[in-house]
Predict the structure.
Amino acid sequence: MQSDPAKQLERNARLMELLARTALADQQAFAELYRLTSPHLYAVALRILREAAPAEEVLQESFVNIWHHAGSYVAAKSQPLTWLTSIVRNRCLDQLRRRELETVTMDDEEEGVAIAAEDPTPLDMLLSGADTRAVRGCVEALEPTQKQAIALAFFQGLSHSELAAHLRQPLGTVKSWVRRGLERLRDCLDRAGVTR
Amino acid sequence: MNLHDPERADALAGEYVLGTLRGRARQRLERLARTDRIVADAVRGWEERLLPLAEALPPIAPPSRVWAAILARIRSAATTPRARSLLWAPAGWWRGLALVGLATSLALAIALLKPAPEAPEGTLVVVLAGGDAKPVLVATAARASRYLVVKAIAPVAVAPDRSLQLWMLPETGNPRSLGLVSTIAPSGVARIELPVAADRALQNIPALAISLEPAGGSPTGLPTGPVLYTGPVQRLY
């Protein structure tokens, strides 16, 4: 959303307040929470699920869940938007798992939901997302292959075998790109004091 | 999957948050994260590292039907009776409250009213109690009266920037405000004017409740703060 740290703090404080009031069954606060966060969360779901109908369903399920469980949000443990994003992403990944069980063939990235051509690629987003947290250096320090595998898995919800098919590489190779990429990212972020 | 090795647990948590951990391995890690603190912390660490990257996505406004469906679902959930604790009060906390402390308050109401034979035409009584079932306020009105008298029977402390607001909890639909009872503090008694006679004003109202609101009352027209006291409406006629 915003990269300005002061604005980010202000936004987080606002979202925390809205979550607290939602826990008290305040529908107006809940409506405001939805207004402020749903465009971001819908974009997350749409990227992973690639079709509007399941993304809308996930968004709906997630917010009904948030209404009932806003009280379980613990401010000390995570940022409000991180908490909300994890709810939506986990539901998306559950959906994908159910689809896998039904052995659906992989669509090409271009098929499915209409993502405008001028939309940034997963790789662009990985870099600009990093920019919002001043950890661009850590993402840039990844090998290009690691960077691409992580970006596709994170933003598009690709599994190891889908990554292998998409990148035309053996499964073992993409698995190690992902694993090493994550290790490197963690070590760099933790060193930079961004997390932990 | 050996999750006793913290490094392995951390690596799996990373793949879980990234999304590449699938199938049963994913479900297993999810289950473990609920009970094992090391796994839960590892997942949280990765959420903190990776999820803010999602903020780079250009936002897309969802169609308005999504919000309409959410509203319909939380409202229908609110009509399902469900007893909950008063301070943790999500959707539709006002349902099912009418029965809370019924026995206590009924006994008290009868005890209070017994030496009052001067109310031959009938009286409505509401004993409002907190989560510990200890009665704190009593609201009474003669059935033909246009006033509800709310009396504190235990000390009630309210911060100067807060108000106590009295609500009717109808059988269906949202709570409706009867007004503020903050004026109770100095005299111990508040008189609330009703739009019609008490027996009609409280018709189909099984219970009343008092919530803590910002000074001047709820800005939304619905309770926004914690519900401090509730009690069933007793019709002694």
Residues 64-78 of chain B form the longest helix (15 residues). The first strand of chain B starts at residue 123 and ends at 129.
